[in-house]
Amino acid sequence: MKAIIYRGPGTPSWDDAPDPEITDEADAIVRVDATTICGTDLHILAGDVPSVHPGRVIGHEAVGTVEQVGSSVRTVGEGDRVLVSCISSCGMCASCREGHFGQCRGGGGWVLGHTYNGTQAEFVRVPFADTSTYQLPAAIADEEALMLADVVPTGYEVGVLKSRVQPGEVVAVIGSGPVGLAAIMGARLFSPSHIVAIDPAERRLEAAKHFGADVTVNDSVASPLEVVRSLTDGRGADVVIEAVGLPETFELAVRLTRPGARLANVGVHGKPAAFHLEDQWTRDLTVTTGLVDTYSTPLLMRLLASRQIDTRKFVTHRFGLDEFSEAYDVFARAGDTGALKVVLSR
Amino acid sequence: MKAIIYRGPGTPSWDDAPDPEITDEADAIVRVDATTICGTDLHILAGDVPSVHPGRVIGHEAVGTVEQVGSSVRTVGEGDRVLVSCISSCGMCASCREGHFGQCRGGGGWVLGHTYNGTQAEFVRVPFADTSTYQLPAAIADEEALMLADVVPTGYEVGVLKSRVQPGEVVAVIGSGPVGLAAIMGARLFSPSHIVAIDPAERRLEAAKHFGADVTVNDSVASPLEVVRSLTDGRGADVVIEAVGLPETFELAVRLTRPGARLANVGVHGKPAAFHLEDQWTRDLTVTTGLVDTYSTPLLMRLLASRQIDTRKFVTHRFGLDEFSEAYDVFARAGDTGALKVVLSR
Amino acid sequence: MKAIIYRGPGTPSWDDAPDPEITDEADAIVRVDATTICGTDLHILAGDVPSVHPGRVIGHEAVGTVEQVGSSVRTVGEGDRVLVSCISSCGMCASCREGHFGQCRGGGGWVLGHTYNGTQAEFVRVPFADTSTYQLPAAIADEEALMLADVVPTGYEVGVLKSRVQPGEVVAVIGSGPVGLAAIMGARLFSPSHIVAIDPAERRLEAAKHFGADVTVNDSVASPLEVVRSLTDGRGADVVIEAVGLPETFELAVRLTRPGARLANVGVHGKPAAFHLEDQWTRDLTVTTGLVDTYSTPLLMRLLASRQIDTRKFVTHRFGLDEFSEAYDVFARAGDTGALKVVLSR
Amino acid sequence: MKAIIYRGPGTPSWDDAPDPEITDEADAIVRVDATTICGTDLHILAGDVPSVHPGRVIGHEAVGTVEQVGSSVRTVGEGDRVLVSCISSCGMCASCREGHFGQCRGGGGWVLGHTYNGTQAEFVRVPFADTSTYQLPAAIADEEALMLADVVPTGYEVGVLKSRVQPGEVVAVIGSGPVGLAAIMGARLFSPSHIVAIDPAERRLEAAKHFGADVTVNDSVASPLEVVRSLTDGRGADVVIEAVGLPETFELAVRLTRPGARLANVGVHGKPAAFHLEDQWTRDLTVTTGLVDTYSTPLLMRLLASRQIDTRKFVTHRFGLDEFSEAYDVFARAGDTGALKVVLSR
User: What is the rounded CA–CA span in Å between residue C109 and residue D299?
Assistant: First the structure.
C-alpha cells in the first residue's frame, strides 16, 4: 500500500509501505476512506517528537471500512463503516475502567501514528478494535465524522468539560486554530453569554465567528485584557481556554481570569510557562491540563446526527489520498491558505 | 488599650492604641480573650505586605467576648463568646451569596489586621458581625476554637476540599508548618491510604505524625519523589498539597503527581514558579489556588465538639497578652523553638 | 391601599388594606409596579393552604419601586427599581450561608403572601431587603423581570439544575403550565437533543414548542412512554421533569426514565404517590424534590439582559392592578383562556 | 462437579451438575475456593425471582483459582487467584464504557447465579473474565476478599457514595444486615459525626457498633425519629441509607431526613412504597436507587490491603463446600443464629 512514513526530519511523501496485518486477535484492519492532518503531524515530521521513530506511518485520525478483524473482535466486522479514533483503549486497565482512555495502561492511549503505524495510509491496523473504533450511522458523512477522531473531542473534553462552562458565563478562548474552534463550538452548547475569540489572524477570527464566538479580538492590535474586562465589569472571564501552547498565551490566559475562574489548557506546549503564584495564590483559580480521552465520542456522534453541531465547517480543503504532498503544503501554510482541516479521501 | 501596631519594618511592641468604637451599625466590639500570630503577620512586620499601612493594628485571629454591638446586629449580643474569623463577610454581595466569603466584594474578605485594625489588641471592632463571628458552645475551649480562625479552615478548604481527597488515595503534603498540619488533619477525615508529610525539619515531621501523616520524608536528606513513587507503583500521588510557598516546592508538587492528580496550592507565594507545561499538558492535572472562605467553620466547630478533630495539638506555646514580644520571638524562631501556634490569652 | 386579602375560601376582591410600614430596620417598603398570580394563590384562595390565615394579603411576585428602607438596609434605596422575589432570605442563618435561601431559618423562605402580607397590593413590606430584592437594570422591562420572581428560577433550579441536563440528552417534561415551560426554556440552555413536552392540552403543547420543546405529546390521546422510547432506542429519557403534581404524573415520570436517569419533581403535590421500588431499586435512579432558592436570580437576570432567554413569552394577559377580579378569572380558567402568566400593572 | 441448583421453590441441596466449559473465548473457568450465600439466594430458592429458571446453579460471589481461560483472555491466566464479582462486565458497551457495569448491555450485569450458572459450585464459568475478575494479592485472605464480591461494594457504592456522606454529618442506616453493615463501614471512611444504626434485633445492633455505628436504635422499642432529631437539633439526618427493602422502612427513611438530605435506597424491594410528596415536594430531598456496579472493587481491595477496612468481621460462620445445607439453614435463620455472612470453603 501507500502511506506517509516518517523518515527523520524532512518533507512527507506518499510512499510504498507494507500492508498491515492482524497481529493480535483484538485488531482490525481498516481501509482508510478519509483521513486528515493534525498539527502534531507537522511536529513529528519536523523531528520534534522523539517517541516517533523513523519508519513509522503517521496519522491518527480516520474514517474507514473494516476489511478484517481478529478472532476476538465482537462488535465490529468486515464491511462496517467506522471512525478510527486518535485514542486506542484496551478497555481493561484501571485507567480505561475509569474512562481515562487517553491514559490507557494496557497498550492503548495515543498509539496510532506514534508508536504504531497510523492512518495516513491506504490501510491501518487498529488495536483493541472493539473499544477503539465507533460504528458510523449512514446519516453521518465521512468528513463530518472524521472531525470526531481528534479535534472535536479534544476541544470539548479538555477545553469545555474540564472548564465546566455554564449558562451566562463569559468564556475567553485563546487561539482560533482547529482545536480552539472546536472549544468554541463545544462551549456554545452550554449557552455562555459571551465567547471571546483571541487570535492574531483575522481570517481565523472570521472562522471563530462561524463557530460561535460573538466577540473577537485581534491581539496583534488590541488588548484582550481590556476587552474581557469591559465585558465583565472589570472582573475577568469565568472560563479561559488556552488553545495555542506558548508560555505567553498561557500567561495571558491566567491574566484574563476572574477570581474563582477555571482555566483549561488545551495547547500543546514545548516550554515551561511562568505561573505567577505571587498574584494568583489567593485567587481561587482552577487550572487543568489534559489529553483527550474520547469518552465523549458517542455523545458527539449523537449531536452530529441531531445536527446540533456542524463539523463540516472545519473542512477548508479536500484532496485525494495521493495528493498528500499538496495537502501537507496547504496545511503547513495555514496562515496563507486559511486551512483549518484538510481532508484526504480515497 | 494596648495593641500590636505596624509602624513600618521592625520589631513589634505592645503599645497604646485608641479603643475601637462602633462606626457602622453592623459592627461589634469584641474583647480579645485569646489571639495568635500567623506567618502573614511576620511578613507584614517585615514590610512585605504593602497593602498594610503604618499605624495598623495587626492580627486576624481571635476568640473573645462581645462588648457591644451596632444597632443592626441580630444574632450576637453583649456577653456572647465568639470566634472572630480571619475572613469578614458582608453577606450581601454576589461573592458572599455564593459562599465565596474570602472574595467578598461588599467590604469584607481579609480585612482584619490588613485594611482594618486587627485582633492583636485588647479589643477589636469586627465589621458585619452577624456574618463574621461564630457563637462558641461552652464545651469548646478558647484555644481550641482559636485554631478555627484561620489555620484549620485554610488547610481544610484550600488544601483538602479543593483537592477532593478520597478514601484509599495517596496524599502528599509539602510543608509541615501549621497550615500543612491542618491539611494533614483534614485529609485524614477522608481516609486516604497514605499521607506523606514532606519537610526539612525533623521536629515538624514528628508533629506531622501526630496530625495524621503515616509517612514522613525529610527532603533535606531523602527524595520525596522516590518515596511517593514507591508507595504508588511508580505513578505518583493522587493528591498533592503545597503548603510552603516557594517556586521549588510548587515545582516539586507538580513532579509528585500521578496523571489525573489534583494539586492544591495553599502556600503563600512571593515569586512566580515555572509550570512545566511541556511535560504536563497531557497529564490531566488539576491545579488549584485559593484564599480561605471560612464556609467550613460551622462544620469544623461540629467536628471539634464531637472530638473528631483535636486542635489543641497546634498550640505549642502560651503567653499573656502583655507578653507579645516574647511570643513573636518564639514564633519567628520556629525552627529552634518548635513553635507551631502560640496562643496569647488575657 | 388596595390589596387582595384572603378571607377564607372564596372569591378574591381588591379591597382596602392598611398601608405597610417598616417594622424592622432591614425592611423595605416597595410600591408594586407589576405583579402576577401563581397557581399557589388559587390554592390559598380555595382554603387549601392552612398556613395562610384569613386577613393575609396574598401574592409573592412583584416588580416595584422602593419607597422607603429601614435603617440597616445598605444596598437598595428609595427610588430603586427592584425585583421582589418569592423567597426572602435573612442572609445569616446556616441555610442562607450555604445558598439554600428557600430553607432560610432566620425568618425568610417563602413568607410573602404566606406568613407576611404579600405583593398583590399597591405596596408591600419586604423583609431582609438587602438579600431579598434585586436591582433591575433599565434594559429589562417590568414584565420580563417579573417572571424571575418565581416561575423561571423554579423551573431552572428545581427542574433543570437538579436534574443536571447535559448536551445531547433526551429530556421529558410532564406538564406545560408556566413552571413546565420555564423548565423547558431552562433545559434548552444545555443543548439536549430532544425536549419532549407532555400535556393533555393542545394549546399548552403549542406554547411548549415556543419555549423550546421539539417533540410534543398529548397524553390524552397518545402514549408518552412510546414516544420517549422511540426517541431513545427503547431505553427511556435521560432526564424527566415532573411539573404537574399528581400521583399519576409522578408515576408516569418514573416510568419514562432510563436506568441511571435523573427525575426532578417540580410539581406541587397534595397526595402521596406510589414509588414502585420493586421495579426501581436496581435502576440507578436519582429523584429530587425542592423549593426554589432563587440563587440563580442574578444569572437569569444576566441571561435576560443578553437576550438568551425571553420571558415575555409567558405573559398572555395584561391588566391594571384594579382589574384583579378579571385577572383571577382569566388565570383560573387557563384551560379555556390559554392563560400562562397574567400581569397586573400599576 | 457438585453445585447448588435451583429446581423450583424448595430446599437447596449439593447435587451433581455438569462441569462448566469454556463456551466463549472471553470466558474463564474458575475453581471455587470460597463462596457465600446472599439474601437474594434465599429469594431465588423461595421462587421469588422469576428470571431464575429451574436448573440454574445459583450463587454470585466467589474467590477462586483460574483453571482455564478462553483464547482472548489477556489479564488473567491459569493458576491466578481471583475474586469473582457479582457483576460481570463486557467492557465494551456504552454502559460499561461509562463505568455502569451493573447496567451492562453487552451480556454482563448480574448474570452469575441468575441467567448463567453461578458460584455455589465446585467450578464456575465466568464470562468476560478480563473485566469480571480481580487478581488477588497474597496478603488478602480468601474470606476477606470474598466480602468484596457483592456486599461491601453494594453498601459502599449504592449506599455511601450515592448519598455523598461528608465529614461531620449525621448518617442514619436502617437495617443492620450485611449490606447495612457494609454501608456503616463505608460511611465511617468519611468521618461523619454520628452513624445511627436502626434495627429491631439487638444482636445486629451489637454488630453495627463493631462496624462503626456510634448510636443504635432498636426500633421495636424506641423511636428512630426521636433519636435522630435529638442528635440534629430537631432537623433530621443529613444522610439516610435504607438497607431493608420494605415499604415501611423506606417511608421511615424519608421521615428521618432533614431538608436537603440525601436518601440512598440499598434495600431489595418487592412492593411499592408510598412517597409522601405532599410533605416532601419542598424539602430538597435527593433519593437514589441502584444496583452495584463494582467500580469500587480496586479501591476496596486497596483499603483491605492497607487494613483500613476489616471485612473478616462479616464472617460469622464457616463451612466446607459440602456443608451447604447446614450453611443455608444457619443463614436463613439469621435472627436466631446471628449469622451475617457464612463462608463455604473448599
Answer: 42
How close D276 gets to chain C, by Cα (Å)? 4
Residue of chain B minimizing CA distance to C106: B75
Strand partners, B215: B196
| A234 near B CB under 8 A | no
Taking an 8 Å cut-off on Cβ atoms, the answer to whether C291 and D274 are in contact is no
For strand C341-345 and strand C28-36, is the pairing parallel, antiparallel, or unpaired? antiparallel
Which has the closest alpha carbon to A195: A178, A212, A182? A212
The DSSP letter of residue C61 is -
What domains does chain B contain, in order, with CATH numbers? Answer: 2-150+293-345 (3.90.180.10), 152-288 (3.40.50.720)
Contact A275, A254 (CB under 8 A): yes
Q: Tens digits of per-residue pLDDT, D259-303?
A: 999 999 999 999 999 999 999 999 999 999 999 999 999 999 999
Distance from CA of D251 to the nearest CA of C (A): 10
SS3 A229: helix
Determine the Cα angle at A299 with ends C229 and B285, to 5°.
Answer: 140
Identify any residues that bridge with A35 across adjacent strands, giving them in sequence order: A62, A344
Q: Note whether B240 and B257 are within 8 A (CB).
A: yes
Are residues B264 and B158 in contact, defined by beta-carbon separation less than 8 angstroms? yes
D34 contacts D343 by C-beta, under 8 angstroms: yes
pLDDT of residue C10: 87
Q: Which H or E run includes B14?
A: strand B14-16
Number of CB atoms found within 10 A of residue B322's CB: 12
Look at the block and give the residue holding cell 435463620.
Answer: D333
Phi, psi of D326 (to 5 degrees): -65, -40
- How many helices (H) and strands (E) chain B has is answered by 13, 17
Are D168 and B306 in contact (CB < 8 Å)?
A: yes
For residue C195, which of C172, C218, C174, C176 has the smallest C-alpha distance? C172
Amino acid identity, position B15: D
- The DSSP bridge partners found for residue C341 are C315
3-state secondary structure of B333: coil
User: How many angstroms separate the CA atoms of C8 and D339, rounded?
Assistant: 60
pLDDT at D275: 98
Question: B157-166: per-residue pLDDT in tens?
Answer: 999 999 999 9
Chain A CB contacts of D129 under 8 Å are none
CA-CA distance, C242 to B47, in Å (whole number)? 61
The pTM (predicted TM-score) of the whole model is 0.97
Q: Which three cell numbers stand for residue C266?
A: 417540580
Chain B residue with CA closest to C73: the answer is B72
Q: Which residue has the cell 443578553?
A: C306
Contact D308 B190 (CB under 8 A): no
pLDDT, one tens digit per residue, over B195-217 is 999 999 999 999 999 999 999 99
